[in-house]
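Let's practice the habit of predicting before peeking. Look at the sequence and jot down your guess about where helices and strands might fall. Then scroll down.
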Amino acid sequence: MIKTFHVYLTYLIIFFNISLFAQEKDNLLKIGLLAPLSGKYEKIGASILFATQMALDEINDENIIIIPRDSGFNDKKKIDNAIKDIKSFDVDIIIGPISYKDFDIANKYPDTIFVSPSNYNSEFKGNVVSVGINLESQLKAIERLLKKEKKTKTVLLYPDDQNADFIQKVLKNLDFNINKIFKYTPDQEILTGQLEKITNYEQRKRNLKIRKKVLEKRDDLSSQRELELLEQKYTLGKVNFDSVVILDFGNSLKSVISTLIFQDVDQNDVLFATLNQWFDKSLFFENSLKKLYFPSVNLNNFNKFKVKYRDNFFSEPNEITILAYDAIGLVYYLWKSGKKSISINNFNIDKRIKGKIGYFKFKKQKTLQDLNMYVTDGGKFKKY
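Done guessing? Here is the structure:
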């Protein structure tokens, strides 16, 4: 109740500031903000609103006006009404929507530019520019890692879910140098069988059985020692890949990793990589996992952002808030660069732009981030 009150209070303060100053100043940057300030995801909306206030405090320019409106969740009519309301204030640009599923509503207003924290696609969707950590940027970072580590036999795995077709499309357009690509079923029983084929598990299991029978017939000390070591294994022989990229998250990701390790995929020989995990500390609880590489935002900046957020608002920020924070800075940068009337063409910027997440750029109607690679190592996240 207290958090809801503070969100509502902040909303009122910003709204009345608009009413008070809009008629007194002509040289204003008016930014609309679409956030779920009610319903299932109201905490995310509040987090976005607070991060926006942090961005304003850091920029420290009284000529910026934020006009927030409640976009709700999965409510086309509500978000449409919110956009109409924001546009009545003659805004320069709108931050949002947060979900790519609402881009079709934004596309109904081609005279207005929307900057969305969505990470679904790197490509501009008409008048919508996404600034989230998109799949293309992550795969490019992983590709650089594999080249640097001289990995040439890569297996890429991704789940058969609602994003499968999109992943296939991105991989095809990128021409990512992958030896084998497999789409797996998240169901554990089916998954185990699918991964057994990839790791040639049954043949390697037979190899172990045959070798143990040979050693059991020998009495020399060397053979007995080897037999003792083999008793701790499930298979014998290496897999025919030197790196595995798993495009998954949470328990599903951990399930794939633990299954591969159970099938004796040696982490000393095979590099494990995945997508941005937002520094999820639960990865450390996966005891069988030694090192997992993943691309992500700048960890140092992310930690500083979270500390400042906690100090100001006494709560934990949602990951999407740092993207909304950077979106405010991006719009302000364009506005200060003399782009008083911001259009989609203003996002064709030659140089890299520095944000809290790190560096990003716009090229050929795409948003691309220069992401750092990190690795889980000894209970810590370390920059690669």
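How did you do? The chain has a mean pLDDT of 88.
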